[in-house]
Amino acid sequence: MSRRTSPVIPGFGLTLGYTLLYLSLLVLIPLGAMFLKTTALSWSEFIAVITDTRVLAALQLSFGTALAAALINGVVGTLLAWVLVRYTFPGRKIMEAMIDLPFALPTAVAGIALTALYAPSGLIGQWATDLGFKIAYTPLGISLALTFVTLPFVVRTLQPVLADIPREVEEAAACLGANPWQSFRYVLLPALLPAWLTGFALAFARGVGEYGSVIFIAGNMPMKTEILPLLIMVKLDQYDYTGATAIGVLMLVVSFILLLLINLLQRRIATP
Amino acid sequence: MSIEVSQVNKHFGSFQALKNIDLKIQSGELVALLGPSGCGKTTLLRIIAGLETPDTGSILFHGEDVSSREVRERNVGFVFQHYALFRHMSVFDNVAFGLRMKPKSQRPSEKVIADKVHELLNLVQLDWLADRYPEQLSGGQRQRIALARALAVEPKVLLLDEPFGALDAKVRKELRRWLARLHEEVHLTSVFVTHDQEEAMEVADRIVVMNKGVVEQIGSPGEVYENPASDFVYHFLGDSNHLKQGDEHILFRPHEVALARQAENDFRPAEVRDIRPLGAVTRITLKLDSQDEFIEAEVIKDHASLKGLSRGQILYFKPKANTPA
Amino acid sequence: MSSSLSSSAPFSLSKSQGRPLGQRLLILSAWLAFGLLLLLPLYVVLSEALKLGFGTFFSAMLEPDALAAMQLTLIAVGISVPLNLVFGVAAAWCVSKYEFRGKSLLITLIDLPFSVSPVIAGLIYVLMFGAQGWFGPWLLDRDLQIIFAVPGIVLATLFVTVPFVARELIPLMQEQGTQEEEAARLLGASGWQMFWHVTLPNIKWGLIYGVVLCTARAMGEFGAVSVVSGHIRGLTNTLPLHVEILYNEYNHVAAFSVASLLLVMALFILLLKQWSESRINRQRHNSAEE
C-alpha cells in the first residue's frame, strides 16, 4: 500500500509559508520586477533593442558556444561517466572526486587560468599559434571555457543511471548475438538518453548564462566575441537600464523555450 | 482496554478506503485484521492509532471518544511493517526514546529508564543487543526491538502492521508463536494486520475479514473457517474447489473430499492429471469431463487410494462437507 | 572455467595483461580528457602564482585590499549560507513530507535560480534597489545604500545559492519517508522533539553536503556580485572580484596568488564534499539492507 501523508507530522503551514515567503522576496518579486521594467518600452522599442545587430551577434555567440560546449561535454562527459562507473583503474578515486572541481572553483579563477593556458603565450596557446590558429579571444576559447565550467553536469547525471543498469542487460544482449557496439547503441544508449539530455540541458543553460569564466578568455570584442551577459553589463555601465533589462528578458525567454523543448523531447523519449 | 470503532468512513481522493466500519474489540483480546492488499486494513489500523483521521465516525477507547485526541496522547503502541527503528540510535536508545520524550515532570530518571529498557529487552530476549544499531540486526531481531520500543511507554493497546510481513518463512513461524505467548503474558489489547490467513488463524483470538473497505465477517478462527459468511471469506481462508452439479454449484476445500479407486455411490469419476506429495499430505489434481476447472484433492500420504496411482488413471471422488454457493 | 579457457586461447597475451584493448583505450582517453580539461588549468594557477617565488605569493595574499576582500567574502558566505540552510530545511520538509497541489511547480521554483544567468541575478536587484530602481528614491531619502554596498553583495550571493541545500535534502527526505517521524510521535515526542531527535540526525550528512556546495558557490560567485558591487577596492570587493582587478591591472602574479588561495579552498571543499557524500552513501546502503 502506498505511503500517504500522515496528519501527525506537524509544520506544514509553517514550512510552506516560509518557503513561499522566502522565494517570493528573494526570487519571484525581483524577477517579476524585471519583466515589469520592460513595459517601460513599447513593443516596437523592445523589438528594436533586441534586434540590434550587436545584440543579435551576442545572442548567436552565447547560444552557439553554449551549444558547442554542451555537445563536447555530451561526448567527454559520457566517456568519463562510463569509465568511472564501469572500470577500476589507478587514480579512479581522484578522478571521481576532482570531476566536481569546476563547481567548487570560483569561475573567475577558472577564467584567468584558462586564459593563461590558451593565450598565444600560454602552454597550449603557443602550440596552437605554431599550427596557425588562435584559441583565446575567439569563440573556440569561449567554448572551451564553457566546457570546463559545465563539465560535471553530464557526468553527474549519467553516473547514477549507468550504475543502475544491471550488467545482466548487456550480457543478455551479448547472448542474443549483439557485439559490444550494438549492445551499447541499441540497449544502453536508449536507457541513458533521458539522463543524458538532462545533463545536456543543464550544461547548456549554465553555459548561456555563464559570465565569470568567459570574460577573461573572450576578448570581449563587440560583434565578435561579446557574450550576452557581458552586453548586459555594458548596458548597465552606460546606465541603459531598460536596454539591459530587455536583453535579460530575451535571454530568460529564449533559455526557457529551449529548456521546454528539451523537456518535451525527453518526455517523448521516456514514454515510447 | 476495549476499542470501539463506530461508523468510520475514509476516502483518499475519490477512492473510498473504508466504508461504514463498525468494530468492537474487548479488553485483552488479540484481534487480526485480515484481507488482501488494498482492502483498507492498514488504513483502519492507522486510524485507530491516530495516524490518519477518519472522514466520519469515531474511535472509542474504553468507552471514551479519542477521535479528537492527538496521536501522542492516545497511548497506543504501534509496530510498523518495516519497524521504523531510528537508524542512528542504538537498540537501547531506541527502546528508551518514548520514556525520554516525556515532559520533564513525568520523565523518569536515567537509572529508572535503564532498568525499564533492560527489563523490556529481557522480555523480548534480546538484552545482549542493547549496544547494537538497527542495521546490525536481523529482521526478526528488529521486529522484537520495535515491539520492545512500543511497549516501553506502557501503552493501553498494541497495534501491529503486518508484523511478520518482511520476514522469511521460518522466522515468521517462530515469531508468531512467540507473539501469541507474549500476549498471554502481558495481556494487552492487541490488533494486528495481516494478509496471511494462516497467520491470522494461528495467532488471533478473533479475526476481522475485510475486503474492499468493508468488514465481511468477524469471528473466531474456527467460526470464520467453518461458517464463512460469504464466498469471499470462503475463498480467502483457504484453497477451494468449485464443482458444478446440475444447476448447483458446490464449494469444498481440497481436504474435504473422499477418494476411491472403485466406483461407489455418489462418487464421481475423474481423470488424474497430477500427483504431488507435499509431505504429510499428497495433492491430486483431477479433471472432470463436465467442467474445465480442475478439482484438487488432498489426502494423507498413505491413503489407500494412492497406492500404485499414476497419471491418466481414473479416480472416484466425493465432496465430504459442502457449502452451496 | 572461463579463466582456464582464456589462458589457453591464442590471445592469452593481452588477457594476461589484465584488460581488453578497447577498455584500455577508453580509460586512456578519459585520462587524457580529464588531464587536458581539468588538471592543466589547476597546474597553470599554481605555476603562475609561484612564478616569482613564495615571497611575492604571500605578500599578494596579505596585502590590505586582499584581506578586506577576504573579509567581505566571509561576510557574504556567513550570511547567505545559514539563511539558505534554514530555507532548504523548511522547503525540503514541506515538499517531502506532504502531498499538495502545485508541489512540482514549487520544486521548479526552488530550482529557478540555477537557470538564471548570474548577471541577471545582479541586474534584478539593481532594478529593485539601485538609484533608478523601484525603491531607489525611498532608500536615498533614508540614506540607505544596498547596491554598490555590502547588502547588495549579500543579496546577490543569496539569490544564486538558494537551491543548494533544498536540492540535496528533497530526494534524501523523500526516500526516507515519514515512518520514523510517525513512530516518534506515537512514542510521545512533540513536533520539535521529533525534528531534533529523529529527522535531523537522519538528514545530517545530506545537510552538510548541501552546505558545502552552497559555501563553494557563495565563496566563488562572480557575475551576480560583479553587477551589484561597484568594484570599490577595500570596500565592496570580494575575493573573486579582487582577482579580476589584479588581473586587469596586469598584476598576474598577485592575481594568480589570490586565485590559488581560492583554489586551495575549492580543493578543501571537494574533500569535505567527498567525505559527506560517502557518509550519505553508507547510510543509504545500510537502509537499503533493511
UniProtKB/TrEMBL annotation, chain A:
Its main location: membrane. Pfam families: BPD_transp_1 (PF00528). Keywords: Membrane, Sulfate transport, Transmembrane, Transmembrane helix, Transport. It is a multi-pass membrane protein. Residues 59-262 form the ABC transmembrane type-1 domain. GO terms for molecular function: ABC-type sulfate transporter activity. The keyword Cell inner membrane does not apply. Gene3D superfamilies: MetI-like. The chain crosses the membrane at residues 12-36, 56-85, 97-119, 131-155, 186-205, 241-265. It is found in: Cell membrane. It comes from the Bacteria. InterPro entries: CysT_permease (IPR011865), MetI-like (IPR000515), MetI-like_sf (IPR035906), Sulph_transpt2 (IPR005667). PROSITE patterns: ABC_TM1. CDD domains: TM_PBP2 (cd06261). One of its GO terms (cellular component) is plasma membrane. Part of the ABC transporter complex CysAWTP (TC 3.A.1.6.1) involved in sulfate/thiosulfate import. Probably responsible for the translocation of the substrate across the membrane. Belongs to the binding-protein-dependent transport system permease family. CysTW subfamily. The complex is composed of two ATP-binding proteins (CysA), two transmembrane proteins (CysT and CysW) and a solute-binding protein (CysP). This is Sulfate transport system permease protein CysT.
TrEMBL record, chain B:
SUPFAM superfamilies: MOP-like, P-loop containing nucleoside triphosphate hydrolases. Gene3D superfamilies: P-loop containing nucleotide triphosphate hydrolases (3.40.50.300). One of its GO terms (cellular component) is ATP-binding cassette (ABC) transporter complex. Residues 3-237 form the ABC transporter domain. Keywords: ATP-binding, Cell membrane, Membrane, Nucleotide-binding, Sulfate transport, Translocase, Transport. PROSITE patterns: ABC_TRANSPORTER_1 (PS00211), ABC_TRANSPORTER_2 (PS50893). CDD domains: ABC_CysA_sulfate_importer. SMART domains: AAA. GO terms for molecular function: ABC-type sulfate transporter activity; ATP binding; ATP hydrolysis activity. InterPro entries: AAA+_ATPase, ABC_SmlMolc_Importer, ABC_transporter-like_ATP-bd, ABC_transporter-like_CS, Mo/tungstate-bd_C_term_dom, P-loop_NTPase, Sulph_transpt1, TOBE-like. This is Sulfate transport system ATP-binding protein. Pfam families: ABC_tran, TOBE_3. It comes from Azomonas agilis. It comes from the Bacteria. The lineage of its organism: Bacteria, Pseudomonadati, Pseudomonadota, Gammaproteobacteria, Pseudomonadales.
TrEMBL record, chain C:
The complex is composed of two ATP-binding proteins (CysA), two transmembrane proteins (CysT and CysW) and a solute-binding protein (CysP). It is a multi-pass membrane protein. It comes from Azomonas agilis. The keyword Cell membrane applies. It holds the Pfam family BPD_transp_1. This is Sulfate transport system permease protein CysW. GO terms for cellular component: plasma membrane. It comes from the Bacteria. It is found in: Cell inner membrane. Its main location: membrane. Part of the ABC transporter complex CysAWTP (TC 3.A.1.6.1) involved in sulfate/thiosulfate import. Probably responsible for the translocation of the substrate across the membrane. Keywords: Cell inner membrane, Cell membrane, Membrane, Sulfate transport, Transmembrane, Transmembrane helix, Transport.
